[in-house]
Amino acid sequence: MKYTPLLLAGMLLAAQAPAQAPDPCTTNDEARLERLTAHDPALRQLMAQSAAELEAFTEAFIAGMADGERETKTIPVVFHIIHNNGPENIPNENVHDAMRILNEDFNKENPDWPQVQPTFLPLVADVDVEFVLARKDPQGNCTNGITRTVSGLTHEGEESMKALIQWPRNKYLNVWVCANAGGSGVLGYTYTPNNAQFMPTQDGIVVRYNALGTLPPANSGFSRTLTHEVGHWINLQHTWGGSNTPGLQSNCNMDDGVADTPNTTGYTSGCNLSASSCDGTLDNVENYMDYTDCSRMFTNGQKARMLAALNSGTASRNQLWTAANLAATGVSTPATLCAAAMLPGPKVICEGNSITFTDISYNLTTGRTWSFPGGNPATSTAANPTVTYDTPGTYNVVLTAINGAQQVTTTSTAHVTVVAGQDVPLTEGFETYASLDDSPWTVINPMNSSFGYFELTDLAAYAGTKSARMRNHAMVTGQVHELISGSYDMSGVDEITINYRYAYARRNSSSNDRLRVFVSNNCGENWSLRQMLTGGYLLNTVGAPISGGFVPTADQWAGATATAQGSFV
Question: pTM of the full predicted structure?
Answer without folding.
Answer: 0.79
